[in-house]
Please model this.
Amino acid sequence: MQGQVETEIAGLKLRNPTILASGILGTSADYLMEIAHADAGAVTTKSVGLKPREGYKNPTVIQLECGILNAVGLPNPGIRAFIKEIREMRNLEIPVIVSVYGFSPEEYAEVAMMAVEAGADAVELNLSCPHVKGAGAEMGRSAKSVSLIVEKVKESVDKPVFAKLTPNVADIKEIAVAAASSGVDAITAINTVRAMAIDIETCRPILANKIGGLSGGAIKPIAVRCVYEIYEAVDVPIIGCGGVRTWRDAVEMMLAGASAVQIGSAIAYEGLSVFRRVAEGIKSYLHRKGFRSVKEIVGLAHEE
Ligand SMILES: Cc1cc2nc3c(=O)[nH]c(=O)nc-3n(C[C@H](O)[C@H](O)[C@H](O)COP(=O)(O)O)c2cc1C
Model:
């Protein structure tokens, strides 16, 4: 049979390779239920930490011609309050990946343990938020910190652990190698690209935090390059993320080496039906090209 879109990442069975990216609608079980009904293959929650965080003042999200710029500041209710939502997410028929962050390896591990106890099918370590001091990309830019965090979390939980990397480094391969050699089960690439916008009338930066992270179409070629480089450097599955809006984007990401793709900003332009459209588009592509399974196209761009 041709055109199978079912796939698997680190033991998680996906009915198709589309996954909701962290931070977009992943704040409650109800939202995630809607996304499951919209045919996503899996969902990722908003990043959650040990303690509640309010996030930054508005404006925190702005739509630019070329994408979305945000500095929300990781607002979240804290893992203790979020446990109730994770428990409800157990009713979903698709895998739930809980995104976690911390200010130390121990904190990452504590949050991850609580998420797994509550029913997370996997945890994604946010090593890449570009705008929170002391968390996210501040640690994700150092190969040593990434190793320490991955090791600590791996020894604390018995579910797959994904590391979400930042593109805001000189050499993403080096960080990917550190995560892989510390036992990570998959790598998500990428989080947003550090960016800013200035209002030419007020002559001031638009975001309250001044600098934020760019997502959407503008970053797709950066994400494709990162996935391509990581695929050559390590032997763990990759989840491609950044600017995926159409099935063509998803196929491109998979040819670069991604086993699945995450979709975030495109929901703002396309609505939730983006998951179904991307999955169906991949299926038709596989049929047209004579591939039996979506697994056959992963990394194909690397063949001589
Ligand atoms: C408003 C907003 C909030 C986000 N919050 C998170 C977050 O909490 N944790 C995280 O790992 N990534 C977060 N991201 C990054 C996305 O998960 C994704 O990596 C990025 O947007 C690139 O994918 P896209 O172009 O499909 O949106 C956020 C992105 C946006 C636009």
In short: The mean pLDDT is 95.
